Amino acid sequence: MEENGALWLTIKDLPEEERPRERLLQHGPAALSAAELLAILLRTGRRGENALQLAHRILQHCEGLSGLGRIPAHELARIPGVGLVKAAQIQAALELGRRVAAAAPEERPLVRSAREAYMLLADMADLEQETLRTILLDTRGRVVAIPTIYVGNVNTTLVRPAEVFREAIRRNAVSMIVAHNHPSGDPEPSPEDVALTRDLIAAGQLLGIRVLDHLIIGRGRYTSLRERGLSFATPSFSQLAPRT
């Protein structure tokens, strides 16, 4: 779009793979920057400035996310391009995030077996593209997060252990379960799946993050490589569960 002889891009002018909302739907919210997430909340920018540019400016004004969390609504609304409606949307999202963070740990699922892990990931059976996710766990075996790591071919030539463990490190997870789907519907692991699993177990040992299992998800069923006899980090699922 051109204004006063200068070109500026709206969100719709960006390539589809660079648009925040499309990136979230494709790769999950964990793959987005703070500015991209904020741009989704804003939805629109103002004349001469798209939502992503406005989001960057808001974060700069607030000196980052911590400042955004502290700024009063009326002050946020005075930032050019924000206004009362956008300020209310941002503050509502921030408060919701606080309430989620404050939720009792007992509200987070406890994973004590491959079957329980599969139940958290059963929707992957319907995905048309091969997708890799991880279930991140705390010291008691409760779920910290389930980020999507890759969408596309999941094999040893494309999957980088650094990417798989990035969210686990960021969220201070102590163990993880890796899972990916086979769009064919057949959960039988390939030699590449086994090779990838061994690479991830080795990387986890170096990083101090235990890889407890790798699930291959098919249509209505799954395969656990731990149950198939592959050597995984200890403790087992049962050893992670809290004592009663």
UniProtKB/TrEMBL annotation:
Keywords: Hydrolase, Metal-binding, Metalloprotease, Protease, Zinc
InterPro entries named in the record: MPN, RadC_JAB, RuvA_2-like, UPF0758, UPF0758_CS, UPF0758_N
Annotated PROSITE patterns: MPN, UPF0758
UniProt cross-references to SUPFAM superfamilies, sorted A to Z: JAB1/MPN domain, RuvA domain 2-like
Domain (MPN): residue spans on this chain: 110-231
GO molecular function: metal ion binding; metallopeptidase activity
Transmembrane regions listed in the UniProt entry: none
Alphabetical list of CDD domains matching this protein: MPN_DUF2466
GO biological process, one term: proteolysis
Tree of life domain: Bacteria
Any Pfam family the entry gives: UPF0758_N
PANTHER family found in the cross-reference section: DNA REPAIR PROTEIN RADC (PTHR30471), UPF0758 PROTEIN YEES-RELATED (PTHR30471:SF3)
Family statement drawn from the similarity comment of this UniProt entry: Belongs to the UPF0758 family.
UniProt-recorded name of the protein: DNA replication and repair protein RadC
